[in-house]
Specification:
- Helix content is 33%, strand content 31%.
- The chain is of the alpha+beta class.
- The longest helix is centred in the last third of the chain and has 20 residues, at 146-165.
- Mean pLDDT is 88; it is low at 165-169.
Length: 169
């Protein structure tokens, strides 16, 4: 059982992921479900509950409201597979040549804006702390540093707007 949930931090939150938990909120509130993920900024929990007909429901419990989190059960193999399939990654149906063009455009735009970027297979790595995956849009940026993530996403978004308006210099 754990008190002070928002104060624990991402490394400790990970130990609860993929486990069935009971989340206490306020005096009388309680949520139960499989912990899918925790938002690293707000400490909010995403709980999945599987229904009999193969469907799943999702609840978000805001981090500031969490009183205690108690692990009820470890996930068995079937549950782990179902959790992983709850939100499958989006597929990119672009041809390889178009992906290369997009990667070059984003890399060039970041370099033009004095951002250290290098290729890492199909991904772009920014300053060793952020990854941009295909198809290289703002939503394809991943980093544990929220400030860098926000700035690079904004920069990539501005490159898309500039390219679409035909104003690239």
């Amino acid at each position: 059982m754990q008190c002070g949930w928002p104060l624990l931090g991402p490394l400790q939150w990970l130990s609860y992921v993929s486990k069935q938990v009971k989340v206490t909120v306020g005096r009388d509130g309680e949520f139960r479900g499989w912990l899918l993920t925790v938002d690293p900024v707000s400490a909010s929990l995403v709980l999945v509950t599987f229904r009999e007909e193969g469907r799943a429901s999702v609840q978000v419990v805001m981090g500031h409201a969490v009183g205690e989190v108690e692990v009820l059960q470890e996930a068995d193999e079937e549950t782990a597979v179902r959790l992983g399939a709850s939100f499958p990654p989006q597929r990119c149906d672009l041809d390889p040549e178009e992906l290369r063009r997009r990667r070059r455009r984003v890399q060039s735009w970041l370099e033009k804006n004095w951002v250290p970027v290098c290729e890492d297979g199909e991904d772009l790595r920014v300053a060793g702390v952020l990854t941009v995956t295909p198809p290289y849009g703002p939503e394809n940026c991943f980093s544990s540093n929220q400030i860098i993530l926000d700035r690079i996403q904004t920069l990539i978004q501005s490159s898309h707007q500039e390219l679409q308006s035909g104003c690239e210099t």
